[in-house]
Design brief:
Chain A: InterPro entries: ExoRNase_PH_dom1, ExoRNase_PH_dom2, ExoRNase_PH_dom2_sf, PNPase/RNase_PH_dom_sf, Ribosomal_Su5_D2-typ_SF, RNase_PH. Chain A: One of its GO terms (molecular function) is RNA binding. The complex is a heterotrimer. Chain A is α+β, with helices and mostly antiparallel strands. In chain A, 30% of the residues lie in helices and 28% in strands. The radius of gyration of chain A is 19 Å and the shape is globular. In chain B, helix 3 runs parallel beside helix 5. Chain B has one domain: GHMP Kinase, N-terminal domain (Ribosomal Protein S5, domain 2), CATH 3.30.230. Chain C is 29% helix and 25% strand. Chain C has 26 helices and 37 strands. In chain C, the strands form 11 sheets. In chain C, strands 18, 19, 20, 21, 24 and 25 form a 6-stranded mixed beta sheet that branches. The chains are: A alpha+beta, B alpha+beta, C alpha+beta. Chains in contact: A-B, A-C, B-C.
């Protein structure tokens, strides 16, 4: 009868969050042994694995070699069981190819590419479960994997989405909010310098509200940065304890 | 799959070890490496399992969909296996790089499960001739540390064991059939996995054979025998692989070992799954956060 | 702060998919009590007061009330009573109400927003202490009940826990579910039924009447009369299988035994006849029907049948149904007929009505006769019958059990004495859902402060048109003047035409309280003696009204036109104008006709008049329809406010002149806004009616030998034009009146929501159309003004202006309000007609509009009035007998035969036999039929009839 009420009068979203609250983020570095760097992130029910290989020699055709910087090669892939309705193919469809390109652009901007000329860095992203904010989780996971691989970055890259419902910006929207037809802004930032490296908007949003919604996404990125940074610090201290480096 | 390159001396070392039933990592010829299984790892699937066998990491999700039965099996449901080799495992799998391996594995699974006694497809029938459940078993290969077939089959069996399908009530009146899905999350149907097979791979190393070959051992292997074995020791599928040749007597030997190992492997798996189930919801799901 | 829990839901969307949603449980949710020392301060809603004064004998300590879902849904009237305060609405309850009844949800939300009610929403589903997970084998209803108990129990503990103030506050759970109550009491909670609780309250006797009577024992013998309704699941299955159909039930106003169901995706209505087949459906319910076998199909009896309100002993329903069945219906007349098998959704609202005098004065059970004839009588229980009998009251239906002839309901409130004009006005406003309360403080605060002055800034921003001779032309007594015109000669020989519309959007800014109120009201409602303004009077009659000789803001459209009315250029601008004169239609007409006058205003009017004629001819050539509907004006006595004379509205050339330019302005604005906002322009369309609608007109015209071609608008206009009987000038008008009734409703819509091919306006033969010219009284025009202002860069856009879904929602409301305003206007005319004829009996000329089985529908042009002339009531064997010829559509008695369009002389009076329910009574004067017709009346205004007229009695 009545449609979904994305934001109740009491100020709660369908899943019980307030408009400015992120979903629960849990993550881990170094999930795999064989990859040079790997990370796993859960943002609510969106779960993403990322693996980084490189920098290494250019694979395949030599013509791809860039003489002044590293070649950032990405692949975005979704497990066939990751979505509500089963996907037929894990990658190769238009949406995944677009995602791949977006990731490539994002990390081209974040990796200190000139440090690794004539080589290649692979970033492979696998979405295990999708509940909105796939791109954001992919970026966040990749950042962690790059850090795990020890690749020089300008800064963390953190991504967060936001929407606009009942004159209120919502941050880190889940699938339900994403598919409700309300506008969506996706931003990836370098949180320390507050530079935006990626910005995308879907749906209709009035110009007057644009800055409020974008600010919400940027604020979300900052919050995510704090969480990721803590995880990285914990990880490093744990690893160093294991290796007996702290002395 | 990080490429493993071995010198002749290393190969000889492994060969001799196997001959003496003492492998490079200290195992006997019929021992598996450390194996971890966790089920219910992906909440949006009907059943899921993750298996980690040394470095081999496999995630399986099962999704049940309603569909029409295939014309030759009107009162049965279907199982579809789909293997995806993630580039996370190795850059070689990027794009379509992993497809050959994926097809190999899924074909083997089809063969192992294509046996009326090992998995009863009739339990997937909803309305004979019209509606049945199709189980999509999607296998995601996340890291390769050797012995993919065995690990995959274990993960598949665990995921199917974990699968619950919503109960469907069929109401018929005046020829119009209507399906009603129970809204009670506890009102579900489980699958009988008791006699389903596991795959056991035997690798011929020198004159002996080993189970669960590590990547290094796989390097020294010229021929492999891959077989599906049920808990009762029935062999549901058999396949020889590799460039080397095997003489019939050694095949018999290998089959004997495979059956023996398979029986206990199945038993161990079912025990472990039963134990996990007993812990129920109290158990904290860890997944990749461990 | 966040704890996370996932819960699993399976939905069916063609496929079965497992949906997982996160559900965060929080520890920062406040209990909402002002006395609470533990929770964070509340940040929304109305707090529960620290010392609640709910005085109940069942619970002597001060307490808060927690009702369950069914109590909220079914006892809405009790909940709304001002004495019920300090109620905790649980989120579980709110959600369930939302899913089960959207009007209920709306009412609940307004209670929650009311600061004097102290209703508080407690988000128990998000609170980690009160969230409950569904258990194995538990239905979702059981889970919700458990959640409600859990929350109640939490409140009980929370309000007594350490750190709280000394005053102990209790909570009381109200539930009529016996099982829930038992479990709650076991859990140590205070739980009562609403009935127990309300009866235990001190000084709340009036609340008892408000209780919904779900458990009222049935008046008559406990005999099941109606077939059982099918359960919803079975209905859905049946609909899927094509066995049943879903549709909305529309009761007939004229015959309580007949109704139609408009089935979704079906053109033709399905006819429903008889009590059993209607099976307790009430007007506007969404029902499931089953078609009857074709041999049982029936057709409307064309009998005008009112359930007599005097009769105490009613025929059993079976007898009435039997009577219908006995009639044989010829095959060719049969219509698809069905019966109701179940109710998908009740759309009950509150109904105005009067109490029927009961035989047992002291009894508490009474019958209420609703004002709306489509609604069945309602049985209520009240102790105030003696008091209510002279009153108009509001009642609500609670349920309709199988063993009761009438639905059961309860008393809600009284409106005032029957017959009081104010009371009657109130009734018709309520019945038509016209929001008519005074404007709230918040709305009035949005008005500009007086004295209102135009600043230099304003002059700079607007085009100064004060020097131009502008005038307005309106009906007499008009105070909300929203349009003015001018025409002047340009140096290049062309003419400049200006249409100046009150710039309401300057005063009503988007998002303000006044904007929301205006959007909600949608339109100004004109009753005969009262105007219910859409915007406060300061705007409607003063600051926005383009009165003469004052400077006013306007939104102007200026055209450059040749003398042949060809548009050379169009421009839109915001302006300041100073109207030189406010004419009535008649004054303007006189000016035009008076050759002696030759001032600039007169010249300008003549130009306009001439151009208007050209424009009109062009429209007619394009196929625009000239339709007619009888409109009348009352002359109201300035002291008694009673109507003293009635006359049909006069149409002059100047009416048409103003109309033409308004149309021109509307079309121009529609084009401009659509060009700029292809997706979110607010337009008005008029769909072409399905050909079947025209059948009565075609049939009627054919009886006079005219063919009406309805294939196209143009063809229809032409054939109407040519259907003229020289001897009977009123024939053509009648035909147009009948054609008007075949039309569809014109509706507002948002351009992005439907395909472009459907933008067409049939009646005006315009490709696209909108409303621009009356922003004082229509909200649609305000939207159009805002859009246009953005187009010309005169105003800023704002978010919801460009959201097509929001615009469509506004349009839907406007359509509804507009329709209701029309109905209310008509009802008001009716009311005044009754008052007017109360003391009069007159003879008037009338025309037969329809021939029915037992009556003639007669139109009296002088009063624009339509009435029913009963020929027989089908029961009493009164003489003389009329013979109804269904084929030819005639009634014959002896040598006299009545056809459609026949002229008759009618005696008009008011049947006062029932003081509560005045009826306009028509009696035949000419042609004379011995024993039936009455002698011609000599004087027009006679004394009120002293005794009941004879013919009045034959109706019983």
């Amino acid at each position: 009868m009545a449609g979904l009420e994305l934001l109740s009068d009491q100020g709660f979203r369908i899943d019980g969050r307030r408009p400015h609250e992120l979903r629960k983020i849990q993550c881990r570095l170094g999930v795999f042994n064989q990859a040079d760097g790997s990370a796993y992130i859960e943002q609510g029910n969106t779960k993403v694995l990322a693996a980084v290989y490189g920098p290494h020699e250019i694979r395949g055709s030599r013509s791809k070699v860039l003489h002044d910087k590293v070649l950032v090669n990405c692949q975005y892939s979704m497990a066939t069981f990751s979505t509500g309705e089963r996907k037929r193919r894990p990658r190769g469809d238009r949406k995944s190819q677009e995602m791949t390109m977006h990731l490539q652009q994002t990390f081209d901007a974040a990796i200190q590419t000139s440090l690794y000329p004539r080589s290649q860095i692979d970033i492979f992203v696998e979405v295990l479960q999708s509940d909105g904010g796939n791109y954001c989780a992919s970026v966040n996971a990749s950042t962690l994997a790059l850090i795990d691989a020890g690749i020089a970055l300008r800064d963390y890259v953190c991504a967060c989405s936001s929407s606009f419902v009942n004159d209120t910006p919502l941050t880190d929207i889940n699938y339900l909010e994403e598919s409700s037809g309300s506008p969506e802004i996706i931003a990836a930032t370098l949180p320390k310098s507050e530079q935006i490296v990626f910005l995308e908007m879907n749906g209709r949003l009035h110009e007057d509200n644009l800055s409020r919604v974008t600010d919400m996404a940027v604020k979300g990125c900052k919050d995510i940065h704090d969480i990721l940074d803590q995880v990285v610090r914990d990880h490093v201290s744990e690893v160093s304890t294991v290796h007996g480096w702290e002395n | 799959m990080v490429d493993v390159q071995l010198s002749d001396a290393e190969k000889v070392f492994i060969l001799h070890g196997v001959q003496d039933n003492c492998r490079e990592d200290g195992r006997g010829c019929e021992d598996y490496r450390h194996l971890e299984i966790e089920t219910s790892v992906m909440s949006n699937t009907n059943g899921s399992a993750r298996v980690r066998l040394a470095n081999t990491d496999i995630l399986v999700g099962v999704k049940a969909e309603l569909g029409t039965p295939s014309p030759e099996k009107l009162n049965k449901g279907r199982i579809e296996f789909f293997v995806d080799c993630s580039a996370n495992a190795t850059p070689e799998f990027e794009g379509r790089g992993g497809e050959d391996l994926a097809t190999d594995i899924s074909n083997m699974l089809y063969r192992a499960y294509d046996c009326p006694n090992c998995f009863d497809l009739q339990q997937l029938c909803v309305i004979p001739d019209q509606q049945c459940w199709i189980l999509y078993v999607d296998i995601l290969l996340l890291e390769c540390g050797g012995n993919l077939f065995d690990a995959t089959s274990l993960a598949v069996k665990a995921a199917l064991f974990n699968t619950s399908i919503p109960t469907v009530t069929v109401t018929k009146d005046e020829g119009v059939v209507d399906l009603e899905i129970s809204d009670d999350p506890y009102d579900v149907q489980r699958l009988d996995m008791k006699s389903s097979p596991c795959i056991v791979t035997l690798s011929k190393v020198g004159h002996s054979h080993v189970v669960d070959a590590s990547q290094k051992e796989e390097c020294c292997t010229l021929a492999r025998l891959i077989m599906g074995v049920t808990e009762k020791g029935t062999i549901t599928a058999l396949k020889k692989e590799g460039s080397g040749s095997l003489d019939p007597t050694s095949i018999e030997d290998m089959m004997e070992t495979g059956r023996r190992v398979g029986e206990s492997l199945n038993k161990c798996l079912m025990d472990a799954l039963a134990e996990e189930e007993r812990q129920g919801t109290k158990k904290k799901s860890l997944g990749f956060l461990r | 702060m966040l704890t996370s829990k996932t819960f699993v839901k399976k939905t069916k969307r063609g496929r079965i998919i497992k949906i997982v949603r996160e559900h965060y449980l929080r520890d920062d949710i406040t209990c909402g009590s002002e006395s609470c020392q533990i929770c964070d301060p509340f940040d929304f809603g109305q707090p529960l007061v620290a010392e609640p004064e709910n005085k109940s004998r069942l619970c002597l300590t001060p307490h808060y009330i927690i009702p369950d879902t069914n109590v909220v849904l079914h006892q809405m009237d009790v909940m709304e009573d001002s004495s019920v305060q300090n109620v905790v609405i649980l989120q579980t309850v709110l959600d369930e109400v939302r899913h089960r009844s959207s009007p209920g949800y709306k009412r609940l939300k307004s209670m929650l927003a009311n600061p004097s009610k102290h209703f508080f929403t407690f988000c128990n589903e998000f609170n980690k202490n009160t969230y409950v997970e569904r258990q194995k084998g538990e239905s979702s209803n059981d889970r919700n009940d458990r959640a409600i108990r859990e929350a109640t129990s939490w409140y009980q503990d929370h309000l007594r826990s350490e750190g709280q103030s000394d005053l102990i506050i209790d909570v009381v759970l109200l539930t009529n579910d016996a099982d829930n109550r038992r479990k709650a009491i076991q859990q140590g909670l205070k739980a009562f039924t609403v009935h127990e609780y309300v009866k235990s309250l001190e000084n709340c006797g009036h609340l008892v009447d408000l209780l919904s009577q779900s458990q009222m024992s049935v008046h008559s013998q406990d005999r099941l009369m109606f077939p059982e309704h099918l359960p919803l699941s079975e209905i859905q299955r049946g609909i899927k299988a094509g066995r049943y159909f879903q549709g909305s039930f529309m009761a007939s106003r004229e015959n309580y035994l007949e109704a139609n169901v408009s089935v979704h995706n079906k053109d033709e209505m399905v006819f429903i006849q008889g009590h059993m087949n209607q099976n307790r459906a009430v007007h506007s319910d969404v029902v499931a029907i089953e078609m009857l076998p074709e041999e049982e199909w029936s057709c409307p009896s064309s009998m005008v049948l009112e359930e007599s309100s005097e009769k105490i002993v009613e025929d059993s329903m079976e007898t009435e149904d039997e009577a219908i069945k006995r009639k044989k219906i010829p095959k060719e007349l049969r219509q698809p007929t069905g019966r109701i098998v179940g109710i998908i959704k009740r759309n009950w609202r509150q109904y105005c009505g009067i109490l029927r005098p009961s035989a047992v004065k002291e009894g508490t059970r009474h019958i209420v006769v609703p004002a709306e004839k489509k609604i069945p009588k309602i049985r209520i229980e009240t102790r105030q019958a003696a008091d209510l009998i002279t009153q108009r009251i509001v009642v609500a239906i609670d349920n309709w059990p199988r063993n009761s002839r009438y639905p059961q309901g309860h008393f809600v409130r009284k409106l005032g004495n029957i017959g009081d004009k104010d009371t009657e006005n109130e009734v018709l406003l309520l019945e038509h859902d016209v929001p008519h309360s005074n404007f709230s403080e918040a709305v009035l605060a949005c008005l500009p402060k007086l004295p209102w002055i135009i600043t230099d800034e304003d002059y700079k921003r607007r085009r100064d048109l004060r020097h131009i001779d502008i005038c307005s032309v309106d009906p007499p007594g008009c105070t909300d003047i929203d349009d003015a015109l001018h025409c002047r000669e340009l140096e290049n020989g062309n003419l400049e035409i200006g249409v100046h519309i009150a710039d309401v959007s300057h005063f009503i800014r988007p998002g303000t309280a006044i904007d929301k109120e205006a959007a909600e009201r949608g339109t100004t409602v004109y009753l005969t003696d009262r105007r219910i303004d859409m915007v406060p009077e300061l705007l409607s009659s003063n600051l926005c009204s383009l009165r003469s000789n004052v400077e006013r803001f306007a939104f102007s459209i200026l055209w450059e036109m040749t003398h042949d009315a060809d548009v050379v250029g169009t421009s839109f601008t915001k302006s300041v104008i100073k109207s030189k004169a406010a004419f009535t239609y008649a004054e303007a007409q006189m000016k035009i006709d008076d050759t002696a006058q030759n001032d600039s205003l007169t010249r300008s009017l003549r130009h306009l008049n001439r151009l208007a004629k050209i424009l009109k001819q062009r429209r007619v050539d394009a196929g625009a329809l000239t339709l007619a509907s009888p409109e009348i004006r009352f002359h109201i006595d300035s002291e008694t406010h009673e109507p003293i004379d009635v006359q049909a509205k006069q149409i002059m050339e100047t009416n048409s002149m103003v109309e033409e330019f308004m149309l021109l302005a509307n079309v121009a604005s529609a084009k401009k806004t659509l060009e700029e906002f292809p997706d979110c322009a607010c337009l008005r369309r008029h769909p072409a009616p399905p050909p079947s609608n025209f059948e009565p007109v075609i049939k009627a015209a054919l009886s006079k030998g005219f063919n009406i071609d309805v294939s196209k608008g143009k063809a229809l206009a032409d054939s109407l034009q040519s259907a003229v009987v020289p001897s009977d000038p009123y024939f053509n008008t009648m035909l147009r009146i009948m054609t008007t009734r075949c039309m569809m409703q014109a509706v507002y819509f948002c351009s992005g929501m439907i395909p472009e091919t459907e933008y067409f306006h049939y009646g005006l033969a315009a490709g696209i159309y909108t409303h621009f010219t009356s922003p004082i009284r229509r909200f649609s025009d305000i939207i159009v003004h805002r859009l246009l202002a953005v187009c010309i860069g005169a105003d800023a856009s704002y978010p919801s202006l460009t959201e097509k879904h929001k615009t469509q929602v506004v349009c839907n409301n406007l359509n509804y309000r507009h329709k209701m305003a029309q109905y209310a206007g008509r009802a008001s005319v009716n009311l005044h007609t009754h008052i007017f004829f109360k003391n009069r009996t007159t003879n008037e000329e009338g025309y037969v509009l329809f021939v029915r089985q037992n009556a003639l529908q007669v139109l009296i042009p002088k009063y624009g009035l339509e009435g029913t002339l009963y020929l027989s009531d089908g029961k009493t064997k009164s003489k003389p007998r009329f013979t109804y010829n269904e084929e030819a559509n005639t009634q014959t008695c002896g040598s006299v035969t009545f056809h459609v369009f026949d002229q008759v002389i009618i005696e008009l009076s008011i049947d006062q036999s029932n003081v509560q329910h005045l009826k306009l009574c028509l009696k035949l004067v000419k042609p004379e039929i011995p024993g039936f017709s009455v002698p011609a009346h000599s004087s027009e205004d006679s004394e009120p009839p002293k005794k009941k007229q004879k013919k009045g009695q034959t109706k019983k």
